[in-house]
Design brief:
single chain, five-stranded mixed β-sheet, two-stranded antiparallel sheet, elongated
Length: 390
């Protein structure tokens, strides 16, 4: 069997890095074609491609007859680490620190023309550790804010670099073991790169899963709940109403003559009207109320622990406020009115039945001339023994 020499290990290592990068690029290509690409996709793409070029330079330098005049792998490592910091910042929506760390990156790269290779190794290790520390802090913050384990994996990769780079420096400066220092730096950097690739892929997949979950329960235009989201949000509330025998009310809202708005001003303006009414309903409702969009121009408000009269009072306030103030869309004043139906039930509330009762009241309001409120009360019929006749 052929002896495995250092240059053979280098090429085997490059093959592994190349495979990881190709798999990552395939994922990036698929995601870039989507209508809503993930944040930071472009800079992470640059990072993976630049890292691959850096590993190519490192592999070529392993051969005894192909030694480069300049320490290109060190420069590539510094640039890659800074690009990772930029990518992590873009994905987290944070731009602080780019300029000062960019100046440090530039100065570190220029050192390749003025310092010897042993000193350049120390510049590389220190710079890469600094940039990875910044990227790790950003990813850890995003992992905590978004509850995304993928960003936590990238933060762990950064922690590995922050611990590994000083260890490599210790071997170089204190123990005077240059070979061991380079081996530690090489191994830590390789492991961190693989973890970043895995973490980025996991982060994007989790983000898309959360996006799909929101699509299943959220109306994409108004960001209100849809019917499924309404049922999920009220599961505990309705159980509490049953246990405590509390009243629950519903208000069904419909924009009057909405087809005329679309015909007169266009569907884009119609969408703006739908969104403005949705925002208005959100502002008028309490924190415990749940607002959903149940149709094209139809909304449903569920009011926990609210009797019929209180719900009707709120409905009147909504009707008057929207009708008295024309909506302003693209500098156009559009008169808009709404019809509202109110229903209420005590204790054991069936959401479908309550919504149907509110819709029935809404139908009465529209038949009565629109821009008005109608209500129905759902009370059970109690028969006593005195009422029975034999």
């Amino acid at each position: 069997m052929e002896q495995i020499l250092p240059e053979n290990w280098a090429f085997m290592h490059f093959g592994l890095i190349f495979s990881i990068t190709c798999a990552q690029m395939l994922v990036v290509y698929v995601l870039s074609d989507s209508s809503n690409p993930p944040a930071g996709l472009g800079l992470y793409t640059v990072y993976f491609m630049a890292a691959l070029l850096g590993w190519i330079a490192t592999t070529l330098q392993q051969g005894p007859n192909a030694l480069m005049a300049l320490d290109v792998p060190s420069v590539a490592s510094i640039l890659n680490s800074y690009i990772l910091f930029l990518a992590a910042g873009q994905r987290a929506g944070v731009t602080h620190g780019r300029l000062p760390l960019g100046i440090i990156c530039l100065l570190a790269c220029l050192c390749v023309f003025f310092v010897a290779r042993p000193s350049m190794f120390m510049v590389q290790v220190g710079s890469a550790g600094l940039f990875f520390a910044g990227a790790g802090a950003l990813c850890a913050w995003r992992a905590w804010r978004q509850s995304n384990i993928g960003d936590a994996i990238i933060a762990f990769a950064a922690l590995l670099m922050v611990v590994g780079m000083p260890t490599a420096l210790f071997q170089q400066l204190v123990s005077a073991n240059t070979a061991q220092a380079h081996s530690i730096a090489f191994g830590v950097h390789s492991s961190a790169y693989a973890l970043v690739a895995i973490g980025f892929l996991a982060s994007v997949l989790i983000e898309y899963q959360q996006h799909l979950s929101h699509l299943a329960t959220e109306d994409p235009l108004t960001r209100l709940l849809n019917r499924r989201g309404l049922e999920d949000a009220l599961h505990i509330t309705l159980a509490h109403a049953l246990r405590e025998d509390l009243p629950t009310s519903a208000i069904s809202v419909d924009i009057d003559h909405f087809k005329q708005v679309n015909d007169s001003f266009g569907h884009e303006v119609g969408d703006h009207v739908i969104c403005q009414v949705a925002n208005f309903l959100n502002r008028m409702s309490r924190g415990s109320d749940v607002v959903a969009r149940t149709g094209g121009e139809e909304y449903l408000l569920i009011l926990p622990n609210t009797p019929l009269e209180s719900a009707r009072t709120l409905a009147e306030r909504i009707r008057a406020a929207i009708g008295d103030l024309p909506l302003l869309v693209d500098n156009q004043r559009i008169p808009v009115t709404v019809s509202l139906g109110v229903a209420s039930a005590d204790g054991d509330v069936n959401l479908d039945t309550l919504a149907q009762e509110a819709d029935r009241a809404l139908y009465l309001a529209k038949r009565g001339g629109r821009n008005r409120v109608a209500s129905v009360e759902n009370k059970p019929l109690h028969l006593s023994t005195a009422d029975r006749q034999v």
